[in-house]
Write a structure and sequence with these properties.
Helix content: 10-25%
CATH topology of the largest domain: Immunoglobulin-like
Number of helices: 2
Shape: elongated
Strand order of the largest sheet: 4-1-7-8
Number of domains: 3
Order of helices and strands: HHEEEEEEEEEEEEEEEE
CATH architecture of the largest domain: Sandwich
Number of strands: 16
Radius of gyration: 26 Å
Largest sheet: 4 strands, mixed
CATH class of the largest domain: Mainly Beta
Length: 246
């Protein structure tokens, strides 16, 4: 018998005893009613702890280069206010199951610029990325893997630049890490070199044409990273790469 079943059994037993003595012995009635309420409270607390233990985690990343600051709501409750381009929130616990995500221009509560239902699985971790031009916004629900094997690092690439072509991500003078990543794509994780200064090039897919270079990238052991391309190739804010840690 698990803890919750035991609390249910005790609560029912003391409720029956309290009812038996209700009109026979006031002291016994009050004694058993107190015990009944004690186990009802224990049951409620245990169920809440079980619900929280099954919760998932979400964070929000504002990656739309020409969208205004936004407020973010989950199931009608505001969780983030005035998020600006390139801002990344902390992780927040949410119960498992379906949740409606509404994104409004900051300070507004009508006509959301995005409204979408997401599924949160028990104990899973997600980044919700707002991407695209302001008139064609998308919300990507991305499953994160925040833990890396001991002594190792993991990295993946996310292409969130609306006007950039498909790209390859390569080490300067070395291997191509990710190939042909187009807008909106998030790659799988790979193992990354740790404690080394790396020079990473973003190239037009299938060519040696470098559109952006990122020197002095260093990945720490026991951590998980997402390298993200944001901004525009043809206008401001200009293309840049951010390294997000899970």
């Amino acid at each position: 018998m698990n803890e919750i079943d035991r609390y249910i059994q005790k609560a029912v037993m003391y409720d029956l005893l309290a009812r038996y003595y209700q009109y026979k012995d006031r002291d016994q009635y009050e004694k058993y009613m107190r015990k009944h309420m004690e186990y009802v409270e224990k049951l409620a607390k245990s169920r809440e702890e079980e619900r929280v233990d099954d919760a998932g985690r979400i964070r929000v990343f504002h990656a739309s280069p020409n969208a205004p600051a936004v407020d973010v709501y989950v199931n009608g409750q505001k969780i983030l206010r005035n998020m600006k381009y390139k801002q990344l929130s902390q992780y927040m616990k949410v119960p498992k199951g379906e949740h409606r995500i509404d994104v409004y221009p900051a300070g507004h509560t009508t006509s959301p610029v995005l409204s979408q239902t997401i599924q949160v699985l028990p104990k899973m971790t997600y980044t919700l990325a707002v991407i695209g031009d302001v008139h064609r916004l998308q919300l990507l629900s991305i499953l994160d893997e925040p833990y890396a094997p001991y002594g190792k690092a993991k990295v993946r690439f996310a292409h969130f630049s609306p006007d950039a072509p498909a790209v390859d991500i390569a080490l300067r003078g070395g291997d191509v890490l990710f190939q042909n990543a187009s807008f909106g794509k998030v790659t799988n994780y790979i193992e990354a070199p740790v404690n080394e200064k790396l020079h990473v090039d973003v190239r037009v897919a299938g060519t040696n044409q470098v559109v952006l270079s990122i020197p002095n990238v260093r990945f720490q052991p026991n951590k998980s990273y997402t390298v993200v391309a944001v901004g525009y190739v043809s206008r401001t804010p200009s293309l840049e790469v951010l390294v997000l840690e899970s």
